[in-house]
Write a structure and sequence with these properties.
Layout lengths: L1 E7 L5 H10 L3 E3 L7 H10 L4 E5 L11 H10 L3 E8 L2 H11 L21 H16 L3 E4 L5 H13 L6 E8 L10 E4 L20 H8 L2 H23 L4 E8 L5 H13 L4 E6 H6 L4
Parallel strand pairs: 1-3, 1-4, 2-3, 4-5, 6-8, 6-9, 7-8
Helix pairs in contact: 1-6
C-alpha cells in the first residue's frame, strides 16, 4: 500500500495538503491518533485499498512517541510510506492565526491544577508543538510553507505526489537570503559572491531563466567554477543520501533577491541532474512575484 502521512505545525497547511491527496484518489483521515495507524492500514488492506493518506499532529500528543516506530515497521512490511512535515516560521504562523481568528489546538490543553486564565500564549503553543513533533520531523520530508499561498502549496504537493516513485527525489530550490533560508533545505549554497545582474538596469527586471541574464552569468568564469563545485559536491554525496534511505533531498541555492543568480544555478543544476535522477525544481521568490503568495 502507498501511505502518505501528513504532519507538522498547526497553521502550516496540513488541511490543504490532505485535500490535495483526497482529490488524487487517496482515502484520507484527518486527526488520526497515531496509536490507531496500524489498525487503519490493516483494515484498508482487507478492503482492497491501495492508497491511504493520514494527517496527525500535536492534538494526539499522548501517542506521538510511538509513531516513528510504527512508520519503520510499515516500511519493513513492504509498504511505500512517505512522511511530509509541514512547518513555517513562527512569525508566519502567528499572522495566519491572527487572520483566521483561530485558536491554537494546544491553547485548550490545561496541566493538572492549572488555572484556565494561565493558558499558554500563541507563541508558547507553537514552541511547545515544535518540541513535541521534533522526533517526527527528523524522519520526514520537511516543507516550509512560510512564503506559500494555499494555491502554491497545492501545486507543490501535487508535484511531489504525482512524481513517479524513485529511490530519491532531488529538489532544487532558489531563494532570497533577505527572506530567510528555507526551513526545508537539506543543503544550502550561497551564491551572493557572484556579480549581481540586478545592477544592470537592462537585466534588473529579468530572471535567471531569461537569455540575457544567462548570457551575462555564463560570460563570467567564476560562475562556471562555482556551478561545477556545487554540482560536484552534490554528485559526490548523493549516493550517501540514497544509502540513508532518504526519499527527498532539498538543495537550496540562495542569492540576495532570489531572482537572478540563484535561479540560474537551480536551472543549470536541474538540467544536469535530471538526466540520471528524478528532479523537481522550485523558485520561491519567482512564485511570490507571480502572485502565488
Amino acid at each position: 500500500m502507498r501511505i502518505i502521512l501528513i504532519t507538522g505545525i498547526s497553521g502550516s497547511g496540513k488541511s490543504v495538503a490532505l485535500r490535495v491527496l483526497e482529490d488524487a484518489g487517496y482515502f484520507c483521515v484527518d486527526n488520526l491518533p497515531p496509536i490507531l495507524l496500524r489498525d487503519l492500514v490493516a483494515t484498508r488492506i482487507d478492503e482492497g485499498a491501495q492508497m491511504l493518506a493520514v494527517a496527525t499532529d500535536a492534538r494526539s500528543a499522548d501517542s506521538l512517541a510511538g509513531l516513528p516506530s510504527d512508520i519503520r515497521q510499515l516500511k519493513a512490511e513492504g509498504h511505500d510510506v512517505k512522511v511530509f512535515f509541514l512547518t513555517a516560521q513562527t512569525e508566519s504562523l502567528i499572522a495566519r492565526f491572527s487572520e483566521t481568528r483561530r485558536s491554537h489546538p494546544l491553547s485548550h490543553r490545561l496541566r493538572p491544577g492549572q488555572n484556565p486564565a494561565d493558558r499558554l500564549t500563541l507563541t508558547e503553543c507553537i514552541l511547545n508543538e515544535r518540541e513535541m513533533l521534533a522526533g517526527i520531523e527528523s524522519i520526514a520530508h520537511t516543507i516550509d510553507t512560510s512564503n506559500m499561498s494555499a494555491n502554491r502549496l497545492r501545486s507543490w504537493i501535487k508535484e511531489l505526489v504525482y512524481t513517479e516513485p524513485a529511490p530519491l527525489i532531488l529538489l532544487f530550490e532558489s531563494f532570497a537570503f533577505k527572506r530567510g533560508v528555507p526551513l526545508d533545505a537539506d543543503l544550502v549554497f550561497d551564491v551572493r559572491m557572484l556579480p549581481n545582474p540586478h545592477y544592470d538596469v537592462k537585466l534588473r527586471p529579468l530572471t535567471g531563466c531569461d537569455q540575457p541574464v544567462i548570457a551575462f552569468l555564463e560570460d563570467l568564469p567564476k560562475v562556471g567554477d562555482l556551478l561545477n563545485d556545487i554540482r560536484n559536491f552534490v554528485e559526490k554525496w548523493l549516493p550517501s543520501f540514497k544509502d540513508d534511505n532518504r526519499s527527498y533531498l532539498t538543495v537550496a541555492i540562495g542569492c540576495t533577491g532570489g531572482q537572478h543568480r540563484s535561479v540560474y544555478m537551480v536551472e543549470r543544476l536541474a538540467e544536469y541532474f535530471q538526466v540520471s535522477e528524478r528532479v523537481v525544481r522550485r523558485h520561491r521568490e519567482l512564485a511570490r512575484r507571480a502572485g502565488d503568495n
